[in-house]
Amino acid sequence: MKSLFLKLSTALLSVTFLFSAGCIKVPESATNLEGSLDTDNTSVPYDKLALNMFPRNQTAGDTLSQMLDIRSLGINRIRVNFWFDTSYMTFSSSVPDFRKFDDVVNSAGSAGVEIVGILAYVPGWLVGDPNWKNVYINNFVIPVVARYAGQVHYWEIWNEPDEITFSVLDGSAEDYFSLLQMASDAIRLIDPSARIVSAASVNIVADGIAKFEWTNQLIDMGLSRYADILNIHTYGGQYEELIILGVPMVLKANMPLWITEFGKRGHGNQLAYFEDTMKKLELILSPDRIYWYTYIESAVADETRSADSTYGLVTMDGGSRQESELYTHLKNR
């Protein structure tokens, strides 16, 4: 499978990126590459599969029982939120409350799953403070990373900062890069063994070239000095964009690649999409990890989604547990 990645890389050497001019020239010969993907003779790379999880949503059970259920699917890596919100620090003068984070970390240890923790967002009382980045680092990043050093080995700095700004970031690659620099320096002082995952933009294939440009700007500013892992999110079936724009981007970054979100709404749609997309992502980009979104959808404690509309493998809509065809497939493989 690596050989196809190399073939695509060679085929795309003629792709000329003109990001500074705000445009990209793509040779017409590159636009039919998707048709060359032979997934019939390709296996699903289950060894790379990981899963997003919202521990605060306990409609399907407590944190430990959900993690044990994830382990029963043959998955031992999860991506979870560590939120800087008022449940962690009610006011600026409050003592941090680690109980929710302790539950996640202790449950992961008991279940035998590895965490990538997303250090994300700010409480309402911090919005409008021009010094917010320093507060985020000193009151949140430093104490959280110090508490779980040796237990959590991967930290992701924010989530989709190009659009999920919480009215403190401005959505630009430059503003996020500044935050990443500060967080990276702090984390490496506290726990030199920790690996830092860059934040992905919103669905990289959803807005023409814009999200590729945003990610390339991070790479050009020196992403590899402050992050150990390049990260993207991709939903839908726009594989030509991943071939034409994604392959050169990954080659330029020269970093390990994780896809920390991909998924499909509707229990009846997930299995076929999963198998096809896992194969194509492996053939096109050969990432080190691929995280399905998600185990159960919604970060709200008691919120549920219908089986027809959820990204989750599991839903408790109507009070009864419903499992997707993909869940059953993973359980029985």
Care to describe what's here?
It is built from ten helices and twelve strands. Helix 2 runs parallel beside helix 3 and helix 6 (210-221) runs parallel beside helix 8. The chain is globular. The chain is of the alpha/beta class and 333 residues long. It has a single domain, classed as Glycosidases (TIM Barrel, Alpha-Beta Barrel).
Question: CATH homologous superfamily, by name?
Answer: Glycosidases
Terminal residue distance: 22 Å
The CATH topology comes to: TIM Barrel
Outline, from the CA principal axes?
globular
Give me the side-by-side strand order of the main sheet: 7-6-5-4-3-10-9-8
- DSSP helical segment count: 10
Share of helical residues:
25-40%
Tell me the number of strands: 12
Count of all domains: 1
Strand residue content: 5-15%
Mean pLDDT: 91
Main sheet: strands, sense, barrel: 8 strands, parallel
CATH architecture descriptor: Alpha-Beta Barrel
Q: Taking Cα atoms only, what radius of gyration do you get, to the nearest Å?
A: 20 Å
Overall SS class:
alpha/beta
- Which stretches are low in confidence, meaning pLDDT under 50 for 5 or more residues running? 12-31
Task: Please report the first level of CATH classification, the CATH class.
Answer: Alpha Beta
H/E element sequence: HEEEHEHEHEHEHHEHEHEEEH
